[in-house]
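Appendix B. One record, verbatim.
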Amino acid sequence: MLSETFKIINDYLTSLNNADLKVNEFILPEALKQKFDFELKAGGGNYEDLLGYIRQYIHYSVKTGSNQYLNQLFGGKNLPALLGEFITSLTNTSMYTYEVSPVATLMELEIVRKMNSFTGYGNGDGIFLTGGSNTNLVAMISARNRKFPETKNEGTSHLPRLTAFVSERSHFSFTKAGNAMGIGSKNVIKVKADSLGQIDPVELESAILQSIARGEKPFFIGATCGTTELGAFDPLDQLVPIARKFDLWLHADGSWGGSAIMSPKYRHLFNGIEQCDSFSWNPHKLMNIPLICSVLLVREKGVLHDAFSTYDTSYIYHEDETSDYDLGPKSLQCGRRVDSLKLWLAWKYYGDEGYIARIEHLFELAKFSEQYVLQHPQLELLAPTQSLNVNFRYIPQFKTDLNEFNLRARNQLVESGKSMVNYCYLENELSIRLILLNPDLETTDLNKFFENFIAEAQKVERSFKIKV
């Protein structure tokens, strides 16, 4: 039975190399309900039924390993990591104590040490978490509990209104974190960004002073290393003095662009990172590790333990010769999946040099894509390409609503299954947002993507009615 399952897996992986493979079988929810038996019933089934469901699941799922999947901030395929994912589920352990997860604990500690060799956190620490959004939340909680340690037990009712500051181009997880930790989403203050999408340090300092004048208590600055729309990097070295001046925690959200810190060629994007208090790094993005694989790094050892440890845990944490290695006390979670094995195996396989080559290859592809847009008479670049996000749109040969036109072209492309790409809005203009993160991509794949998109845009152009 297992051999049949492995054959399905092998066939799927092999199919991803087929240039004619559709990225997705687009189907609306009600139609999919008719084709797939989702109902859970009183009676069970058999193994042949399970194989059938697996085949159907694969058929109707988006093929994120395809070289025409250019849609979100994850994708591609990574065989060493995939093997790690399988072994993780097979062994099925948790990360709260060394006793129950000895090898994975030491792997996680080594990965955190290795990552901190890039950040410059010589006395640093870190923890694996369930996504970049949660790394931002845990960073914010750590910041509050360091500035106001009594809130860990007493809560925030005795404190003035707390405020945090992020770029208007930052990830929405910061405002969600404000909600989750009880300071309120509106007290996560959005600071104006410049034309490149980078936070404006002058505007930041002004916003902090205004908050203080209102009787509020600033405690946190959230910078971004790779914004979701433009791939912009906030100037960390200009934010450090502001954070120190007002005694604020400075967090760098590298959930998207963080892995680029490995490349000496692009290390300048992180100037000042060694003076930040924490850093989010998502290997499930630029390092192509299967979801989820996210790490929060902190500059000072002990910060996480102080923020999250508790004392009524004798049933799980015991004082013995391995207790110093227990990771649970510094984690917001108790049961925590092993996410270290898949990353450790991939890093062992590719090494620093292999990952640096993969990342720098992607930056070259981003430059290639930007030039393609600039040289095509009916494509318009909507923003300079700063890292791995290429923003553009199609300009038809008649006057029309460009947002509506490009949205229709993009949706037709996705529905065709030939390529998948997403979009965003830049100053109210709809932008096709091409994401470069699959290291298996070559220029031929990008040529094919642009040809597919332009073909759909031309179909829309032929069918659209001219609007005056």
